[in-house]
C-alpha cells in the first residue's frame, strides 16, 4: 500500500543521510546520494548510492510490533531463490532494513506483463521452507479489534459476518505455505524481464488462498480470471487436486483479506478513507455483489 513520492523535504533527506552515516554498513563508503522512493502507510523507503553500490533503506515506525527477524528470514529465503532483492543489514536500534537496489524497475502491471510470471513467482515463494508461527485468521481478527482506538467501533453486523468467514476458512482443509500476504502492485517489482517480490513485513505461514485472494482483490480479477489463476497455480504446485479446495476457499479468503485491511486501516486515524474502501468491498462480498 505504497504511494509514489516525487520529492521529499530537504530536512527529511538530511535526516536519512545522517542516519546512514551512523550505520556501520556505510562506514567505509558513506552515502553520496539519497532520495525518497515511496512512502507507505507504515514504512518509508529511500534510495542510497555510495561509491560501492546502490541500496534501498526501509525505515520502520517506532510503534511497529512486527517481528523484523521473521521478515528478514523470509526475505533471505526468497532472495536465495532469486525471488527478492538480497537483504544486507537489519538494525533494530535505528529501525531500518537495508537491501540491494534493483535498477530500472516498475510496479507490476498485470495486463502488460501477464499472469504467467506472477504465478510462477508465487508458486516458487509458496514452496520456500521458513519456520514462522502459522496465521490463525480468527485470532488475528480478534487481535485487530482489540487494537482499535477508543471510540472506533466497526459495524457489528459486518464484523460478525467477517468472523464467520474466518472461522469457516480456519476449519477448512488447509494448504499452509509461506504466504506474502501483501501482494499489491507496489510490492511486485518488474525489472529486466523478471518479477521481484518486495516487503515481507506480513509474510508467514498461512493458507495459500489468502495470497490468491490478495491478488484477486488488488488486481480486480474477474471470476473467469480467478478460475484461470487457480488452475494454473495448482499445476505449478503440481497439486491438481488443490484447485477444487481453492475454489471453495477463495470467496472466504477474499472476505478475510478485506477484513484484515479494513480493521488494520481503522487502527490508523489518518487512513479512514482506506478503511472505508475495504469496508465497502467486504460488504459487497458478503452481499454477493462483488
Question: Mind explaining what this structure looks like?
Answer:
There is one protein chain. This protein is an alpha+beta fold and 290 residues long. The chain has two domains: 100 residues, Phosphorylase Kinase, domain 1 (2-Layer Sandwich), CATH 3.30.200.20; 182 residues, Aminoglycoside phosphotransferase (APH), C-terminal lobe (Aminoglycoside 3'-phosphotransferase, Chain: A, domain 2, Alpha-Beta Complex), CATH 3.90.1200.10. It is built from ten helices and eleven strands. Helix 5 packs parallel to helix 9. The two termini are 21 Å apart. 34% of the residues are buried. The N terminus is likely disordered.
Q: What's the shape?
A: globular
Computed structural class: alpha+beta
Task: State the separation between the terminal residues, measured CA to CA.
Answer: 21 Å
Beta-strand content bin: 15-25%
Architecture of the largest domain, according to CATH? Alpha-Beta Complex
Amino acid at each position: 500500500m505504497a504511494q509514489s513520492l516525487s520529492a521529499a523535504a530537504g530536512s527529511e533527506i538530511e535526516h536519512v543521510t545522517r542516519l546512514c552515516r551512523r550505520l556501520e554498513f556505510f562506514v567505509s563508503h558513506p552515502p553520496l546520494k539519497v532520495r525518497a522512493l515511496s512512502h507507505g502507510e507504515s514504512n518509508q523507503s529511500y534510495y542510497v548510492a555510495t561509491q560501492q553500490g546502490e541500496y534501498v533503506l526501509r525505515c520502520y515506525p517506532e510503534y511497529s510490533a512486527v517481528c523484523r527477524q521473521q521478515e528478514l528470514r523470509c526475505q533471505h529465503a526468497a532472495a536465495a531463490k532469486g525471488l527478492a532483492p538480497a537483504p544486507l543489514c537489519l538494525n533494530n536500534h535505528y529501525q531500518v532494513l537495508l537491501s540491494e537496489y534493483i535498477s530500472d524497475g516498475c510496479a507490476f502491471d498485470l495486463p502488460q506483463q501477464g499472469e504467467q510470471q506472477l504465478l510462477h513467482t508465487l508458486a516458487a515463494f509458496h514452496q520456500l521452507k521458513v519456520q514462522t508461527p502459522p496465521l490463525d485468521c480468527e485470532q488475528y481478527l480478534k487481535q485487530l479489534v482489540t487494537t482499535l482506538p477508543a471510540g472506533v467501533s466497526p459495524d457489528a453486523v459486518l464484523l460478525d459476518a467477517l468472523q464467520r468467514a474466518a472461522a469457516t476458512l480456519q476449519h477448512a482443509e488447509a494448504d499452509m505455505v509461506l504466504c506474502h500476504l501483501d501482494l499489491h502492485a507496489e510490492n511486485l517489482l518488474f525489472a529486466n524481464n523478471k518479477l521481484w517480490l518486495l516487503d515481507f513485513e506480513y509474510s508467514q505461514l498461512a493458507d495459500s488462498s489468502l495470497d490468491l485472494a490478495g491478488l484477486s482483490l488488488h488486481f480486480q480479477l474477474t471470476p473467469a480470471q480467478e478460475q484461470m489463476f487457480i488452475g494454473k497455480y495448482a499445476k505449478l504446485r503440481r497439486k491438481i487436486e488443490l484447485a477444487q479446495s481453492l475454489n471453495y476457499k477463495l470467496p472466504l479468503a477474499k472476505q478475510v483479506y478485506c477484513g484484515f485491511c479494513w480493521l488494520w486501516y481503522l487502527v490508523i486515524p489518518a487512513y479512514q478513507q482506506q478503511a472505508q474502501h475495504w469496508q465497502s468491498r467486504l460488504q459487497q462480498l458478503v452481499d454477493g455483489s462483488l
